[in-house]
Design brief:
Layout (H helix, E strand, L loop, with lengths): L1 H12 L3 H40 L4 H18 L14 H16 L10 H7 L2 H17 L5 H9 L5 H4 L1
Helix pairs in contact: 1-2, 2-3, 2-4, 2-6, 3-6, 3-7, 4-5, 4-6, 6-7
Length: 168
């Protein structure tokens, strides 16, 4: 990015405004890509813990904290600076979920029951549609609730997961 800023300054100083605008477009794209990658990593983290919860039928405090933190971070990252639009719109999560779920299954395979199942065995053990539905319900909350109220709502949803009644 440093090179792009140097070129941007040079283009502006030389009056090459079309070239400068091209650099600005590149920088905007790089920024958007970085944000989407961060969102994707929090989505994978969220899914790992939902997979562990489903397979092990329990909810540890650590998992609950990770799930809640992931949703809060996704909400914060997804909201653009104008506070009116999103990088990922509510109806656009399907492709992100598919990719993240595949990565999460592989990552969760070393954690579920202390690595008892390889990724292929773990995939057979989980109900993918149920996990996607729970995830989508949690993601929808990021569009509905404010940063101030979402934490309580997430806690309520966590209490509905297997083992959630004991967690509360």
């Amino acid at each position: 990015m440093t090179q792009e800023l140097i070129e941007l300054r040079q283009y502006i100083e030389e009056g090459r405004y079309q070239d400068a605008l091209g650099i600005i477009d590149e920088l905007e794209e790089m920024s958007k890509k970085a944000i989407l990658e961060k969102i994707q990593s929090f989505l994978v983290r969220l899914l790992i813990h939902l997979i562990k919860n489903q397979v092990e039928q329990r909810l540890t405090n650590s998992w609950a904290v990770s799930i809640r933190d992931s949703i809060v971070k996704i909400q914060s990252l997804n909201l653009k600076d104008n506070k009116k639009s999103y990088y990922i719109k509510e109806q656009e999560w399907q492709d992100f979920l598919e990719e993240a779920l595949d990565d999460a299954i592989f990552a969760a395979s070393i954690e579920v029951f202390e690595g008892k199942y390889n990724p292929f065995q773990l995939r057979e053990k989980i109900n993918e549609e149920e996990i996607k539905n729970i995830t989508y319900d949690l993601l929808k909350m990021t569009y509905t609730y404010s940063k101030k109220t979402i934490r309580g709502e997430i806690n309520h949803q966590l209490s509905k997961l297997p083992g959630g009644d004991e967690w509360v």
